[in-house]
Amino acid sequence: MKAIVVGGGIGGLAAAVSLRRVGWEVQVLERAAAFAEIGAGVGVMPNALRALEWMGVADEVRRLGTPRVSGGVRASDGRWLVHLPEAGQERVIAMHRADLHGVLLRALPPEILFNNVEVTGVEELDADLVVAADGINSRLRAELLPDAPGPVYAGATAWRGVAPGPYDLPITQTLGPGGEAGVLPLGDGRVCWYVAAVAPAQAGLDPLELFGGWHDPLPHLIRSTSQVLRHDIYELPLLPTFVRGRVALLGDAAHAMTPYLGQGACMALEDAVTLASVDGDLARYDALRRPRTRAVWRGSRRAGRFGIEVRSRLGLEVRNFALRSVPGSVALRGMSRFTTWQVPSMPR
Q1: Taken in order 221, 223, 226, 228, is the CA torsion positive or negative?
Q2: For residue 36, what are the domain limits?
Q3: Which of 17, 109, 173, 198 lies 20 to 30 Å (CA to CA) from residue 57?
Q4: pTM of the predicted model as reported, rounded to 2 decimal places
């Protein structure tokens, strides 16, 4: 059986690795001139690590990444709101997105990778299975589901980068009025960071003006980063199906979500392994993935309403009091409900 994967990002490469593991002949078509990944950090959550274990590449991910235990949540003035206990907590692997992409790329033979390929429609692809992993603005999704809504602005814009360091910091999230920030340390002393603020789309904003008064080391991380990436946050409204005919939507092409749970890339890895584990049974793939991604999509939305979208003084006081009142062990259980996913069993 032959599969063609459209899109050479993390989700597309993971699909290729996974399908080859169960015996499919695979080709990967990428529109860009080279297979590469831009961006900053990614937290490989326990659910994503299980998917990578199934693919056979988890050891290299552990070698390149840094196992960290999340430090918790802070207020913009630096006060700790939640300390997460280390006992019983599964590790998060902190790494650069380019490193994760490279692990998946090296797991594939070069002769199945084709770049500078513009796919404009499904009919031009000769394969038993087509995997549409072409991102939030997927052309294939628009062709297959012409009545489905396209991406919508989620009301916030974000900046991210990699500060040179060296630093020795825990993984932390910071919540402030109408904004949030995150710190994801890498093993070589560099730090991946992001800041996000409620704002109109394409607003002309300076991250240092917005976050320069937040606790250390956030302002210093922004100032010391030579290349800061900025993007408005979009999400994809929930789709009625992830499949149509011989085509399966995967990753952001199927369920692009807000980043407030840090599960976007993790969901794409889950998709890839699930698609292979059902061995091309697209009805089964749809039945497994839509409820799961819908729950995470909604969970990320709720996290945004409780986090970045809180702006009033009273709202901040209530939110921060609520967080301080929750024992770390309880907060940990609440977070782990999104990371307990297991790889589906293979069909006979």
Answers
A1: positive
A2: 2-336
A3: 173
A4: 0.94
